[in-house]
Each structure stands twice: as C-alpha cells, then as structure tokens.
Amino acid sequence: MVLNTKQTTLAYRCPHCGAAVMTAVNLFHLKGSLVRLKCECGNSSMDAELSGDGKVRLKVPCIICPTPHRFTVSEKVFFESELFVMPCPYSDVNICVMGETNHVKAELSRTELELLDLMEKNGISDFEALHREAEAQFTDPQVLEIVLFVIRDLDEDGRIKCRCADDEEREYDAEVLPEGVKVTCKKCGASKIVPTNSLLDAHEFLNCDALELE
Ligand SMILES: [Zn+2]
Ligand SMILES: [Zn+2]
Ligand SMILES: [Zn+2]
C-alpha cells in the first residue's frame, strides 16, 4: 500500500527581519488544525487553514504593506504545484511561495535579490526600515483603498457578522463617508463604521479576523 502523503513546502518572508520562514506542510497537519509559521524573531507569523470547501486559506504578512494579505487557493494548487507564488496586490513583490522545496528556495533567493535591489535604489539599509518607509508612504486615499479591499476579502470569506443567521443569504453595503467606511447589512440593518483617516485609525480593523456589525 502506498500512503498518499500530500505535502508541500510553504514559505513567506518576515517583514520585520527579512528572514525567509519555511516549513513542510502535509494534508495531515492541515486537517488537524490551523498551521502557523512563525519567524524566529518573534515579530511575524503566517497562517494556513483548510476551509470546508476543500480550499486552503492563507493569511500572509506583507514585506511592503502594514497589513497581512489573505489568499485562497485550491488544495490541488497548494499540494501539487511545483512552484506557486502569491504577490502583494499593491507592490507585485512575491510574499508567499509554495511548492517543491528546491523551487521554493530558488524563488526565495530571487525575491531576496529583488528586495535588496529595491532597498539599495531607495537608500534603505534594512528590512525593518523598508517596512517603516512603506508604511509612512501610505496616504489617506490608500488607507481607504486598503480598507475597502479588506472588507471585500472578509465578505468573500464569510467573516462579516451581523444579526442575521450565519446560513442566511446576506448582502453588505459599503458606503464611503468622511469619517470612514460604513458597512451595513441590507437585510438586518446592522452596521459599523471602519475609520479610514489614517493607518493608525484603521490598524485595529486591518488586523482583525472578522468584522462584527452592531
Ligand atoms: Zn522575523
Ligand atoms: Zn502588500
Ligand atoms: Zn444581517
């Protein structure tokens, strides 16, 4: 009997120290619980989780952006790709890599060179500074854009909660107001305003796992 051990190598780069964090993940790990990769510096972690519909959901810290990005890939892509990369939607830098170990290592070296090049061109000396620099460059319209993007993400993932039952068909409305984005359930009327005036204001929301409307 041949055991079917579906396995992949999963990696991300720590936004704080720049180290590549890599681990082997098999279906058994994922079926058990959420898989969390942690950087040795203790400042970042990435999550992989199997969802009910046979997909793998990933929450990846971004080397450029202040907030992690969420991705969903099929189990097939996750376990059977020789190499699969996921770029930051804002900077196009690959922030998550999966696949066969040697391909993953090669891609990590390639991205590292790309980042070092980017840093040299901008006179930035280390990864921490790159992240800080990028964070400082986020202007208000970009905060709004990121917040809207994250709201869409949470909605697609079914992570917006209101007074409606979880299995009920819901539709949410996102309205841009001067003080932030107002998310409203069209069915029960529950709503919440997510502040978008600055990155600091939006910080709590951007790091949350679910949005609860009241
Ligand atoms: Zn680190
Ligand atoms: Zn990003
Ligand atoms: Zn509702």
Task: Describe the fold and architecture.
The protein is α+β, with helices and mostly antiparallel strands and 214 residues long. 32% of the residues lie in helices and 32% in strands. The strands form 4 sheets. A 4-stranded antiparallel sheet has the order 2-1-8-7. It has a 4-stranded antiparallel sheet with strand order 3-4-5-6. A hairpin with an 8-residue loop joins β5 and β6. α5 runs parallel beside α6. The longest helix is centred in the middle third of the chain and has 21 residues. The protein is flat. It starts with 6 loop residues before the first strand and ends with a strand. The model has no long low-confidence stretch (mean pLDDT 87). The structure holds zinc ion (ZN) (3 copies). The site of one zinc ion has 8 residues, from loops.
